[in-house]
Amino acid sequence: MKIVTIGGGSSYTPEIIEGFINRHKNLPVSEIWLVDIEAGKKKLETVGRLAQRMVEKAGINCKVHLTLNRREALKGASFVTTQFRVGLMEARILDERIPLSHGMIGQETNGFGGFMKALRTIPVILDIAKDMEELCPNAWLINFTNPSSMVTEAVQRFSKIKCVGLCNVPIYLVKTAEQMLGDSNFLLHCVGMNHYLWARHLYYKGNDILPEKLADFVRTTNESEQVRNVKNIPWDVNFVQHLGMMPVSYHRYYYMTEQMLEEELTKFDGGKGKTRGQEVKEVEEKLFKLYEDPDLAVKPKELEERGGTYYSDAACDLIQAIYTNNHQIMIVNTQNNGTLPFLPDDATIETSAMITDAGPIPLKATALPIIAQTELHIMKTFERLTIEAAISGNYDTAIQALTLNPLVKKGEITRQVLNEMIQAHKAHLPKWQVRK
Amino acid sequence: MKIVTIGGGSSYTPEIIEGFINRHKNLPVSEIWLVDIEAGKKKLETVGRLAQRMVEKAGINCKVHLTLNRREALKGASFVTTQFRVGLMEARILDERIPLSHGMIGQETNGFGGFMKALRTIPVILDIAKDMEELCPNAWLINFTNPSSMVTEAVQRFSKIKCVGLCNVPIYLVKTAEQMLGDSNFLLHCVGMNHYLWARHLYYKGNDILPEKLADFVRTTNESEQVRNVKNIPWDVNFVQHLGMMPVSYHRYYYMTEQMLEEELTKFDGGKGKTRGQEVKEVEEKLFKLYEDPDLAVKPKELEERGGTYYSDAACDLIQAIYTNNHQIMIVNTQNNGTLPFLPDDATIETSAMITDAGPIPLKATALPIIAQTELHIMKTFERLTIEAAISGNYDTAIQALTLNPLVKKGEITRQVLNEMIQAHKAHLPKWQVRK
Amino acid sequence: MKIVTIGGGSSYTPEIIEGFINRHKNLPVSEIWLVDIEAGKKKLETVGRLAQRMVEKAGINCKVHLTLNRREALKGASFVTTQFRVGLMEARILDERIPLSHGMIGQETNGFGGFMKALRTIPVILDIAKDMEELCPNAWLINFTNPSSMVTEAVQRFSKIKCVGLCNVPIYLVKTAEQMLGDSNFLLHCVGMNHYLWARHLYYKGNDILPEKLADFVRTTNESEQVRNVKNIPWDVNFVQHLGMMPVSYHRYYYMTEQMLEEELTKFDGGKGKTRGQEVKEVEEKLFKLYEDPDLAVKPKELEERGGTYYSDAACDLIQAIYTNNHQIMIVNTQNNGTLPFLPDDATIETSAMITDAGPIPLKATALPIIAQTELHIMKTFERLTIEAAISGNYDTAIQALTLNPLVKKGEITRQVLNEMIQAHKAHLPKWQVRK
Amino acid sequence: MKIVTIGGGSSYTPEIIEGFINRHKNLPVSEIWLVDIEAGKKKLETVGRLAQRMVEKAGINCKVHLTLNRREALKGASFVTTQFRVGLMEARILDERIPLSHGMIGQETNGFGGFMKALRTIPVILDIAKDMEELCPNAWLINFTNPSSMVTEAVQRFSKIKCVGLCNVPIYLVKTAEQMLGDSNFLLHCVGMNHYLWARHLYYKGNDILPEKLADFVRTTNESEQVRNVKNIPWDVNFVQHLGMMPVSYHRYYYMTEQMLEEELTKFDGGKGKTRGQEVKEVEEKLFKLYEDPDLAVKPKELEERGGTYYSDAACDLIQAIYTNNHQIMIVNTQNNGTLPFLPDDATIETSAMITDAGPIPLKATALPIIAQTELHIMKTFERLTIEAAISGNYDTAIQALTLNPLVKKGEITRQVLNEMIQAHKAHLPKWQVRK
């Protein structure tokens, strides 16, 4: 079994390698190909050698290849994972800083920043999918490149490659439920979209206890460690109880927009402060320092500070579930097909699903509250217009998408910031031109 | 035929009186009852006497009654029109100033202000409808009390009274089309919701010419006089053409939020400036000065400055169309019943309809673009949650409604402003209490 | 204004000519082209000369042309009407007799017979529409070729020609309501599909009186003259009242299948009896005898026995309504576009609509009872599969369509009768082959 | 754990007892209460004593109680299964013979017979559910009383009791797939309604192989043993391939109505022949003879001839899956909740689902072909009208339901046969009266 990791020079790589090592008995990976581009060559070599040392130390029968030749790597692959970032961390920092300088949420996957990341990433992922159609048409593409919902939907709609999107955010919901119950023998049925997911049912000892446990769930969430990317501003118990479902951390951008914005603007400090991207960049630099140590042959603990914890674990679990057809229930990004009847059949949603070797089969939840249906309708229409814009390069479609996004300021300013963004990301947006 | 006008002390009254005078041949109104509350007694007397002089001068067979006794007035009425304002102009001014002082759009019918107006008005209109069920169960309620969409929907869903909502905004679309074509022999098919309406088709000489005439339509709109309440910031031709439909003036709050907000904040000047409500109040004071003149026996030209031009004209047209069953096409607020299949059947929408003596029958337009469907989905869900909150007094439902509204800031601030509003409007919100 | 009538050699022609003569003041038709095929040459000449004598006698400024050259006729036409019959009356007789010989309803437009007529007619109408796209792209096609719903839908979906379908059956509903009320000042709002239509609302003096007048409506229908094609078996008042809408005559095939079948089988008498097609053929022969009389210059009264009364009247009314943009309410076959939200947007339905010069705009009725929705779902799916089969020639699609039709026997017999039909109609079904 | 079996005197009982014996290790049932009514006392004693001997011989720690006191039995139950037949086998025989004598399909669960069975059974099951609400509100009702879809839906909609419906028919699909593949390591994803179910996907080794295996599936089905109740007339490979899904045996009543009817009529022989009910009655009499043997202490092999094979096995599997929360995939009758988006949320459907201790969670299949959607729409509307009639006793609703059913003759005959049925089943239809 051959695994290919696009963006193999990422600081995350030791985590996924550890994942494969730990599962080797049930998931006998024989080749791991770490692929990167010329600009990431140095990082690829550093982290790649660590990966090789890890595998060697583990004593498993598996070979780690490092390459800049994507097509060579893809040939005959069984699973392809993606963790690349078009424009590297510098692009993310622009996605954060430009909106902030105009008083808008500046965030990697939400609002204007998430929109720009989609414009840059979708053409690249479709290129990869096209290569896969030729070189490994039966391989699974396990996407955890953000914005995961849009990137996954682009592949699912515009290529023939089997693709599942993954995210670490839902895992925090599950961990919190576990912490609250002091028991792991439950089923948390989640449904929504990536970064816009809710826990809808909590099945425990024969009943859906979510309604009576919501207040408790909120308290546990407010007090426990959550995803690092999003400031853990406490949820209002009344608000969540009236909603009747448990939101994920990222919902704060929509339900507490002002507090999140204030928080970000304070940190940004009129341009003098750092954004999350810059912090992560520093963490990464430190990590790569560690990775260079030729005596290091395990995943260093410091990687956990990086943010994307559980990501690679989820990816390895998913690969194993597909490979062994073990019918595990996971929360994944897959095609709607009527699971949320008010969204198009070919929309990508995030949902609890049973994993089979033919892919995820969504579990059907009861109808969402009308407010949640409305929110998903907004977010998905924004996403579909964004995907359309990313593929066509149509400026007006871009404006229309942004006009629907609740985190973007509307009117003349939308055009101005879009122009500024096109200018700033010019190298990675070949189809796009400023419009006066 | 007996007509009752609730809020008869309004400065608008001369317009509706003129309307009945002009149509008297086809619409033989024999009694007009102007009703107001104690607080509006003086204005009722002033404008009421003018009304009486107007009718007398016109020499038609019709008697104008002035009363503070609503139930007496309603008995046996054929048509009831409403133009009242719970809390008078002072309440409107609060609806504008409080949001502005928190950096949000401060507007009578949109955003936080419109929400508060709905909370105050819906219980009152339902009281009126209840009286009507008893005293004139077959009468038509012609509502032009704002926010018209929510007020009309409340009556249509929660009483047995036949109700149609009216607005002057669509008339500007029609006037603009007329100006553009230099011809009045066309059919402008409009659909959407009140203050969120689009011209969807422009039938002219056998074809729907809207698509090729949109740019022209935009230019004509940008250059012509429009509804006074909304600053006429020019539309971007590209934006409208990509949308494929002609928006109304109020769409600027949603498509150019930043410019509208800036405009308002500049005028507000940190609290030192006046809002539209205050201007209107001054205009009204001047009007009432004029109305006092015992020699005045026609509608004074100055009333046109007031803002609601065409309103009363529309009301008289509608009453005549119902009375004569003339199958006129008008743009009215009526129940959806599948006209917009993605909204509930019992939602009130604004649409071109054929008027019969059994009420409006909507004309069916082709499917809206997905972006418009999404926007209406948001706005209608906001409205339905607001109606629910207005009836129940539930604080959490109010927060949920506001969280969906694109013109309201989200998070802790929502609660703070709601509390401030409840405090400020205490006298007209008996069910509502501040929540810390 | 040039009118073209395809199938101009039909015995109906004097009626449509009379219609144009009577309306000439408002509808100044200057040329009428009667087109037929070689096989219909003699009839065309006979009825065509009568038409010429009628126009001459009326003294209007209009010329009647007779031609076998369809393309010459179509050039520059304003309106094209169709009244042709592929395979002439002989084909209809086969459509009736073959199903009857297998114990199934044998009827021109319903069941197996209607299905076969669609297979023969759809390719021909699409050919005509293709000619029109080239020779008179702005002309209106007024279709009254049966099965009207499928033939109209085929044109509306698979050509660019503007097309409205018409039928005389709804007129009987209107006439019956008029007879019942003793007044013509009402609005009968009908909705459904061709030959599967219901009166949904009866607006009269300000109210929808249908519910309380249904029993009366049933009685009036049972006692009055109805469409000649369908035996007037009395409706059960209980049944119709529970349905809550007034059915058309053709509904008897679905709601009283057994009685209709018995009636037909008795008349058929094991093959010794005549079917309706044979009777009509005889009537037609007599009519043509009359038509030959060079002194005849008006529509002979005997034509009314023929069956399609009101058809041509409806066509002339529709043409006039489009031409003068008079906003008349008519019951027509037009695209659904959400009027019946449970059917596809591009399905052709029959509905009350306001006629404009840009075509019919459907009036929106309230939701149909669930049983009616289900029935229309069946009938429309049958129709769409039939259209698909008529275009593709796919045998399995044909079987699938027939399997859904409530008047067709299911199983091996379906295949047998389809084979027999293909054999019998071979000359007009070039794409079809028997399958053993 | 206490299990209650309503209709415990059924000849099936030894099978369910064997099921509990075989699963005792994982499903430690401690009490089994067999309940029956006075009329079934003798059978209850015979089969009950056999059950007691079986349990004793198996040496498991479980007690079998026999009682005519349903309320005593229900108190504190964990699971209640139902296998009763209102009116016993005599009622079934009438359901078969009366329609046949009028030339209609005479069948226990389909057409007129299934309709009558629903009228008799639904009031009784709702009584049982009412008792359960009082005596064992947390128990699961495992229904395998036919017509299972309607009986289960009645409980799911009109009581608070948790209910799952079961049928043995889907098991034959699974067995046939197993036989075809020579492997049991596949997932057959089925969806539809009870006795109207299709295999939609066949996941095997990472792919949905149903499309390319359909012809094979048809051949295997045609050649293998299938459910005994339905004559195994071979499927037409073309028909099934065009459908794109594998039908169940009962689909023959709808897809091959004529052949099935001929088959039945031949056997019925103008009233001289036996129906399936009579055969089963004879088999049962023989079985009860066997059961009386005091030396018999195992399920006799002859029971397999009875027809309902796998039924009890399915029930025991389901009870075990709920009890152990083992996430097994089973095909069950449960609430739709959007699984089939074109049917109401509260409709009961049959679908592959993951079984948890909180009930089944449906697996989401891709959209059904439009023909299947239409068919389910018919069948479900028929069912819902039938349930409504069974509860209300409304004669017109009954006629409406029957008019929709494809196996029932329409018109005057419907009323005649309904009257005959009401007369024949008088003792078990207290609400119903003949209408002349």
Word description of this protein:
4 copies of one chain form a homotetramer. The first copy, chain A, has 436 residues and is of the alpha/beta class. The first copy, chain A, contains 16 helices and 13 strands. Chain A has helices spanning 13-22, 41-58, 70-74, 88-101, 111-135, 148-158, 169-181, 210-223, 237-243, 252-255, 257-268, 276-292, 311-324, 370-392, 395-404, 412-424; strands at 2-6, 31-35, 63-67, 79-82, 140-143, 162-165, 187-193, 196-204, 207-208, 246-247, 329-335, 348-356, 359-362. In chain A, strands 7, 8, 9, 10, 11, 12 and 13 form a 7-stranded antiparallel beta sheet that branches. Chain A has a 6-stranded parallel beta sheet with strand order 3-2-1-4-5-6, sandwiched between helices. In chain A, helix 1 (13-22) runs parallel beside helix 13, helix 5 runs parallel beside helix 6 and helix 5 packs across helix 14 (370-392). Chain A is globular and about 55 Å long. The N and C termini of chain A lie far apart (52 Å). The relative contact order of chain A is 0.14. The mean pLDDT of chain A is 95.
